[in-house]
Design brief:
The protein is of the alpha+beta class. The protein folds into 3 domains: about 10-95, Integrase, DNA-binding domain (Double Stranded RNA Binding Domain, 2-Layer Sandwich), CATH 3.30.160; about 105-190, DNA polymerase, domain 1; about 210-415, Intergrase catalytic core (hpI Integrase, Chain A, Orthogonal Bundle). It contains 15 helices and 9 strands. The strands form 3 sheets. The chain has a 4-stranded antiparallel sheet, with helices on one face. The chain has a 3-stranded antiparallel sheet with strand order 5-8-9. Helix 4 crosses helix 7 and helix 8 packs across helix 15 (about 390-415). The termini are far apart.
Length: about 425
Amino acid sequence: MAKHLLTDRHVRNAKPEAKPYRLFDGDGLYLRISPTGARSWQLRYQFNGADQLATLGKLDRLTLAEARIKANEQLKVAAQGVHLTAAKRIDKLERQASVANTFGKFAAAWEAREARRMKWTPNYRRKTAASLHKHLDAFKDLPIGRITAVTVAPTLRALDAVSPAMANKVRGMLRAILDDAVEDGVIPVNPLPAARRRNKAEQKHHPAKTKLPELGAILRAARDADTYQGVSRAHVLLAFTALRISEVAGAKWSEFELDGVDVLIGDTQRTRRDHDAGNWSVPRERMKRKDEDGEPHVVPLPPALLAALRAWRDEDGDDAIYVCRGSRKAKIPLGSEMAEKFYRVTLKLNGKHSPHSWRSAFSTVCREAGKDSGTIEAQLDHVVGNSVASAYDRAKRLELRRELMNWYEGQLIAARDGADVVAIGRKGGAA
């Protein structure tokens, strides 16, 4: 190692001249002074047997002591066969790309592409965008390369504690967005661990209360809870139809027949107009099962629920679009997470009963009472027998389901209120 020749006084007193010149310090380190007075540190080193000159930085950013440290570090890098100037240019380009390729940019591109590829409904896309904003907005300005397991772990763990289902959805979105960054060559690998797989026997099912006294207690608690109208209505629809929250939350008034429907008379094809009956035709695009014929899932409305829906419709007026609105004024549907939170927080049922649990409750109560399995499965929109059924078969099955849902509603209301069956009021409670 050569002896250092410069001192801080030499550096301070270096004056510009007509031509640029250098002051040598040792070990290939120079201070270059230009005619304009600009002073910068330069390093002479060997690359493939030839002399090369690399700029380390300006004097106003690197003191003499700092320049010596940096020169020593760079000489070690050069000794490994690296061209310092080329490596510096590559680092700069990578930094620029890192700043440009933010997580928010990739998240927006992923959402747009998936919406087209999977043919998302506008409502589902709004919910996805809301989830991205709510749970991952803190990362939107970070370079995509800074998103690691360590970075997102606190967010995912906190979400796991209150909503494991939502945590899994967010985890899935994160992995998909990072996979896109890998495919674009912006990051080398996806830093998040792959989803853990379990055998079907090990799969966890939604926890559910399935005994009528327990279900009655939940209905009483929900009836007495001070909650938002859209959530209260969604709860009633979930409990008395056994549909999924994603199917209930987007319910539109245009999907309901509330002023009476034609019903079969006995086992013949004769029908009559029943003004005390109603139907809800859920569009197939909102159902989990996508039928080839695209027919909606028709849900028979039991009498107390039908009465409640009629009261809600009168309350909302003719201009209303959604039954379960996201807010009182906005013309947007309820977010599924609001209903999930109602069960977790307001009703204190976290890990015990969720919106989805009503499907298990319906199935268990009906089966234990000896009700027809095929009718139960049809109400749950599971495939029953031959998928190609005549219009008459559909109608007959609908009437069987209507009988079943009328019976089931009576069981729930009796469990909620005692032996006297009473109608559901305007807010989903007793009249």
